[in-house]
């Protein structure tokens, strides 16, 4: 079985992808995005998810935990550790990503 993922994503992210849905109970908004085996997702996805959950500049609503606590790795964001475990994600710390050399 092949995964229909965009070519450029294939280059940067591993094939196994896990959907994560986050909700902002203040705005009653919801966003679903995909992370790889290491719990990584791109900064572009991070921005898009943030915008979808709350597009109000200076808003004091609380971003969902998965987004508010996502680790900043430059070109990528990583889900909080406990969340990665909850999703059954395995960490592969030695994987190199394109942005590692940026
Ligand atoms: Zn807001």
In short:
With 102 residues, this protein is an alpha+beta fold. The chain has helices spanning 7-12, 43-53, 65-68, 81-86, and strands at 18-24, 29-35, 40-42, 71-72, 76-78. Residues 26-27, 54, 56, 59, 61 line the site of zinc ion (ZN).
Description:
This protein is of the alpha+beta class. It has one domain (12-91). The protein is 26% helix and 22% strand. It is built from four helices and five strands; from the N terminus they run αβββααββα. It has helices at residues 7-12, 43-53, 65-68, 81-86; strands at 18-24, 29-35, 40-42, 71-72, 76-78. It is globular, with a radius of gyration of 14 Å. The structure holds zinc ion. The site of zinc ion has 6 residues, from loops.
DSSP helical segment count: 4
| Proportion in helices | 25-40%
Question: How many individual domains?
Answer: 1
The structural class is: alpha+beta
Average predicted local confidence, pLDDT:
80
Range of strand content = 15-25%
Q: What is the overall silhouette?
A: globular
* Rg result: 14 Å
Which hetero compounds are present in the coordinates? zinc ion
Distance between the termini: 33 Å
Would you report the number of β strands?
5
Describe the largest sheet. Answer: 3 strands, antiparallel
Low-confidence stretches: 1-10, 94-102
| SSE ordering | HEEEHHEEH
Strand order of the largest sheet: 3-5-4
In terms of topology, how is this protein built?
Layout: H1 7-12, E1 18-24, E2 29-35, E3 40-42, H2 43-53, H3 65-68, E4 71-72, E5 76-78, H4 81-86
Antiparallel strand pairs: 1-2, 3-5, 4-5
